[in-house]
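Dear H.,

Thanks for agreeing to be a second pair of eyes. The structure we're designing against is below in token form, covering all 389 positions.
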């Protein structure tokens, strides 16, 4: 049987990074992935430009049942360390907004950099993983290409999002097999969908983007909101989707810089229609739609009593919607929940009860906000496990 010091399951962001960190410790590393190409999610990330980190990274940018868990790894592998790697590789980048760093060119430059960094490790793509069994103080990883005996296994198989490009629940199955607890998983950073009867407003506005503010639970975000044929999307919706649970009502401010009711009252006078005045405060399509929805499509602003303008204002500044669901793992950027951090060592990512087995990246119950945080968690957790290996 073949022997390796470390077998890493998954050649995604975390798996490749962990391989580089472990090779630097002089280990013989084998990385396995069933996909034909490594790190498909890096390729499609950030609209093809990979938002590879966020300078504002800190434990407060992550959701987890145990919010402090990520602090140790994040403190030991900071965004600047990754930026240094990117600079050394000669990859041009820019800061978009709020500390988000993107490649100027293709996202695959990041994958190439990670592959260079792990030179010496063996990467086996298109390899089906049939199982992991404990064999005394070692593991046997059974693959379609034969079995590998190894002293350590690092599980970096990611979450369930985008099965089309290779996501599976293998990490969760292995966690269960070795007695680790799981925090319930659900799609996050995902568009929200509406029931047919609630789509009346969204559908005609499909494609329109407006700046919006949404506060829900512990999440509060201000960013672009996109109306779609199925409901709502855009960064502010993706962010809040991580905090939203099925059945809950969201209150959305579609004009965060204005008090629409007060502004309409102040504009009263003359012969202007409600929709015309509203269109000076909001994108025209939205103004028309909101006025029509309130039965004021042709109404004159001067004729409207305060109560009606208050209701119209609330319709914009406190729009209440009850999404029926999300677009699910088909389009979700990440999976919330996963391997319960109570069963992992925060410094090494090793399972407390099975120290030679580590879990890193998205399969762990640490989920970042939108904006480069999820990759930073992948790098940081991978480095922690790779150094410990
Ligand atoms: P990742 O999913 O990267 O890798 C897991 C690997 O395991 C894959 O290669 C997969 O094929 C393999 N695998 C799974 N099951 C297997 C099995 N049964 N057998 C063998 N191999 C198996 N984040 C961010 O910070 N900035 C961004 O710009 C974006 N953009 C973005 C866009 C889109 C469209 C998506 C879907 C996601 C993002 N993300 C992101 C999130 C980011 O991509 C994600 O958090 C990381 O890729 C997670 O890294 P992992 O290595 O944990 O999983």
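And this is the sequence the design step returned. I haven't edited it by hand at all.
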């Amino acid at each position: 049987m073949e022997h390796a010091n470390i077998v890493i399951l998954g050649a995604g962001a975390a798996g490749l990074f962990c391989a580089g960190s472990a090779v630097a410790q002089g280990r013989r590393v084998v990385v396995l992935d069933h996909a034909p190409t490594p790190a498909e999610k890096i390729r499609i990330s950030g609209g093809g430009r990979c938002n590879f980190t966020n300078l504002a990274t800190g434990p407060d940018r992550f959701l987890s049942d145990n919010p402090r868990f990520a602090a140790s790894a994040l403190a030991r592998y900071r965004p600047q360390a990754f930026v240094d790697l990117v600079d050394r590789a000669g990859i041009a980048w820019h800061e978009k907004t709020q500390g988000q760093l993107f490649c100027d060119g293709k996202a695959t430059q990041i994958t190439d950099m990670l592959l260079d960094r792990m030179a010496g490790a063996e990467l086996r793509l298109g390899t089906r993983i049939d199982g992991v069994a404990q064999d005394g103080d070692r593991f046997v990883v059974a693959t379609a290409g034969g079995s590998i005996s190894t002293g350590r296994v690092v599980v970096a198989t990611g979450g369930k999002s985008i099965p089309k490009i290779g996501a599976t629940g293998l990490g969760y199955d292995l966690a269960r097999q070795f007695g680790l607890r799981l925090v319930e998983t659900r799609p996050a950073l995902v568009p929200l969908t509406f029931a047919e009867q609630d789509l009346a407003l969204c559908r005609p506005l499909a494609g329109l983007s407006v700046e919006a503010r949404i506060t829900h639970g512990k999440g509060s975000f201000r960013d672009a909101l996109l109306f779609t044929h199925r409901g709502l999307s855009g960064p502010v919706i993706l962010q809040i989707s991580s905090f939203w649970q099925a059945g809950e009502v969201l209150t959305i401010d579609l004009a965060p810089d204005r008090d629409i009711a007060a502004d309409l009252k102040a504009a009263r006078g003359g012969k202007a229609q409600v929709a015309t005045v509203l269109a000076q405060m909001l994108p025209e399509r939205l103004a028309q739609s909101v006025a029509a929805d309130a039965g004021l499509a042709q109404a004159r602003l001067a004729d409207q009593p305060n109560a009606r303008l208050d209701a119209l204002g609330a319709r914009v500044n406190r729009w209440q919607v009850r999404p029926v669901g999300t677009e699910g793992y088909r389009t979700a950027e990440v999976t919330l929940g996963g391997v319960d951090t109570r069963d992992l060592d925060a410094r090494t990512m090793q399972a407390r009860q099975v120290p030679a087995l580590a879990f890193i990246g998205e399969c762990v119950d640490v989920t970042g906000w939108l904006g480069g945080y999820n990759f930073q968690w992948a790098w940081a957790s991978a480095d922690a496990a790779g150094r410990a290996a």
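Two observations from my side: The chain has two domains: 2-186+336-388, 192-326. Residues 34 and 126 are 4 Å apart (CA to CA).

Warmly,
E.
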